[in-house]
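Batch manifest line 368
LIGAND: heme C
JOB: complex structure
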Amino acid sequence: MKTYFTNKILVFSLIAGFITIISCNKFENSKIAETYLDPNEPDYGFKSTSPEWNAKIHLGRVLFYDKALSVNNSISCASCHRQEVAFADNVAQSRGFENKLTGRNSIAIQNLGANSIMNIGFEINTPLFWDGRERNITSLISKPIANHIEMGMDNPEALIAKLNQLPYYKSLVQNAYQVDKLDMTILANAMVQFISQITTQNARFDQSKMFNGTQLHPLSALEQQGEQLFNTTYNCARCHHPNVGPYMSEDFANIGLDLNNNDKGRMNVSNSSADEGKFKVPDLHNVALTAPYMHDGRFKTLEDVIEHYSNNIKANSHLDNRLQNPDGTPISLNISESDKKAIIAFLGSMTDYKTITNPNLSSPFKSR
Ligand code: HEC
Ligand code: HEC
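JOB STATUS: finished
ARTIFACT:
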């Protein structure tokens, strides 16, 4: 009897051990899982009307997610512009290819279609980057490496030669541009086609505005209260014009985050001391998804941001006059807790969940 039990225990432990070994192997395998490109080209909405355009968007998407764009195959654009956080990053500073930190907080890529050439025949270039040092998204991408991207590829020819050796680019480029090889112009153009698909203009806020006068999808009572506070009581809209459609703010402001500016912001571009500590007024679409906030990611939550405007604006010598009292001291908006809640609810109505759920914006690389 005793031996029977001992044997049973032995068998059990053998089975348990075996299962552990199998699952460990599985774990090892998943760690080294190879990624491959999903062979299917989805319909981005143009497959029947303009197959070439569809193929351009697809090529751009592959490039956006391809870690081969960094010198040691460690990061892609999507490492710092992540779909799950609305194409921003959820850390104050992102890490580049050698774990080096970016100087500023990653900006959510959204509504930049207007920065490529629009169908209406002229170009609208809103400022790009926190200091607006770039205006044209094609040129932002075609000098990526020198610019902000921390991918270690400071030699465009070497990058293009490397990408052309990968097995999948030949047919992607043929389908999109009817040539055999990638070059920098094609790379930038395709990426712009993809990035232009990242729009956030179908949030409930936008829907509430759509049909001039008649609101088909009105905001909730709390959101409407927040909208009124944002637009009127606290005058946030003096800088952040809540807009529907392409974001076209040309505005830069010093909002008194510190007494002195470590990062001179816009002044680095204009060389004018009047621009010291100015940063661009960001598009607040999807802001509920893109914490942390500000050019340096200093605030972890929207509550922290509103608390800044409420009581913490510093007497920076370049403080924007929209945030000054008539005697030049910084304003304190003294926003009550219930008003803070309403403003945050209103900001939440600007979330377009499609940005984070649209499969056509996700990585085309799958793991085996
Ligand atoms: C290592 C992280 C990192 C990588 C990789 C990266 N970015 Fe960025 N991106 C940032 C940061 C940080 C900013 C803000 C920089 C600044 O304002 O000085 C930014 C800003 C941008 C902007 C400006 C958005 C706006 O509205 O002003 C665009 C467009 C952009 N990146 C596209 C790309 C593309 C395309 C790639 C790949 C070729 C890429 N990024 C790779 C971190 C990164
Ligand atoms: C004088 C112009 C101005 C006013 C008024 C203003 N803002 Fe801002 N806001 C800015 C600028 C500029 C930034 C970016 C500053 C930086 O990063 O240094 C910003 C950043 C923000 C951000 C963070 C966005 C992000 O992606 O990091 C939020 C949220 C915000 N403001 C909400 C508000 C609210 C709510 C009010 C009203 C209580 C308000 N703002 C009033 C100019 C303004």
